[in-house]
Amino acid sequence: MLLALIRHGQTDWNLALRMQGRADIPLNATGRAQARAAASGIAALAPWNLVVSSTLGRARETAAILAAELGIELGGAYDELVEEEFGDAEGMLVAEVRHRWPVRDTIPNAEPAAEVGPRGLRGLERIRADHPGRSVLAVAHGTLIRRTLAEITGHDAADYPKLDNCSASLIEADASGWTVHTAGGVPLAELLGDAVA
């Protein structure tokens, strides 16, 4: 099974560098344009069968735009693909969060970082079970995607770069499990170098 994890399009909070997490902030006009523009590049990666997403509106709308642009099915929404819960930091400027809580796992009421990657991987397995043998686009969120890729490869999420809005990370599943081919469009070997071996 071939799957591409797509980060949603831009929101006003992305633009303002605010922590979004589970806050259901909609796409802005730029985000909608990004989704439309990304479709051709995503189409060039593989012939896709359908698009699924997280349950949050910004991911769902990005998925709907991609489905319309690519002429493919808009599938379901998966709770496992929602963004990391940032607790008391949600809505705050990223710079302020880093100043107040230099260690991310000390943010009050936040989801433990170590739980995010395994949750994302459970979502991938649900998608795989729901759509066997199909090529699927899954629209999700930057931190969720990075932590899920790290869970698959065994690397630290910090090894993965910040993902651009509407960037694609290509992964594949076979009988032995999941393999990461690219992160945000960059080949894994190029991104992680010797750490991949």
From TrEMBL:
Keywords: Glycolysis, Isomerase. The keyword tRNA-binding does not apply. Pfam families: His_Phos_1 (PF00300). CDD domains: HP_PGM_like. Substrate binds at residues 7-14, 58. Gene3D superfamilies: Phosphoglycerate mutase-like (3.40.50.1240). The keyword Ligase does not apply. One of its GO terms (cellular component) is cytoplasm. One of its GO terms (molecular function) is phosphatase activity. Coiled coil: none annotated. The active site is at residues 8, 83. This is Histidine phosphatase family protein. The lineage of its organism: Bacteria, Bacillati, Actinomycetota, Actinomycetes, Micrococcales.
